[in-house]
Amino acid sequence: MMQLTASDGHKFEAFEAGDVNAPRALVVLQEIFGVNAHMRRVAERLAGFGYRVLSPALFDRVQRNAELGYGPEDRQQGAALRAAIPDAAVLADIEATALALGDRPTGIIGYCWGGSLAWTGATRTHQFKAAIGWYGGLIVNTRDAAPNCPVQLHFGELDGGIPPTDVDAIRTAHPEIPIFVYPGAGHGFGCEERSSYSPKDAELAELRSLAFFAEHLR
Q1: Which of 16, 57, 160, 184 would you call most buried, defined as having the most Cβ atoms within 10 angstroms of its Cβ?
Q2: What burial letters (b/e) apply to 26-54, b meaning 16+ CB within 10 Å?
């Protein structure tokens, strides 16, 4: 972990992976379960494709070293932590993470809560050259916002928290955005620690994500 400082003086940690001299970079945003073992594995895997990766510990604002599992109690705790952090504070941490990566082409990718925050990073900052959200349930609430970089989105067809009407609303608001829906997949289909994990869909979504970044992070 490395320590970063946001514009408001808040100091927080970020998991770092990949060559410090890599020509491209990614900000990887957590689910509501913290920068846990799963998120660290995601960061390491993406770094293996030639990226410098930072995954900010967004929960440091309210609880440091928060690493949760995927049970009902963990979900409740994670939701409470998320609710305790103002949107502006989260955005400040995301921007500080991007700035720490320097002037190399940088993308942002997030999962669950982080999937929604990747949309925030695309629409409320100019730090990123591409943004990808996996099953971001809050995107629909700000679907009319204009992204400042290319965006790609991924959803599970059977996600209980993101109904097809939400995905359709996002698609209608932004017909230019590639939106992929995975038949039979539920929420969190990309997390190997969830019961909803779908290896084939996770692999396909990752391939699409990597191709998107390869195209735009130049």
Answers
A1: 57
A2: bbbbbbbbbbbebbbebbeebbebebbbb
d(CA 180, CA 211): 14
Nearest to 108 by CA among 161, 78, 147, 146: 147
The CATH homologous superfamily of the domain defined by 2-216: Alpha/Beta hydrolase fold, catalytic domain (3.40.50.1820)
Helix (H) or strand (E) holding 100: helix 87-100
Tell me the helix, strand and coil percentages in the chain, rounded to 5: 40, 20, 40
Q: What is the DSSP letter of 34?
A: B
For residue range 24-75, list pLDDT tens digits in order. 999 999 999 999 999 999 999 999 999 999 999 999 999 999 999 999 999 9
d(CA 120, CA 104) in angstroms, rounded, equals 20
> What is the torsional sign of CA 201, 198, 51, 82?
positive
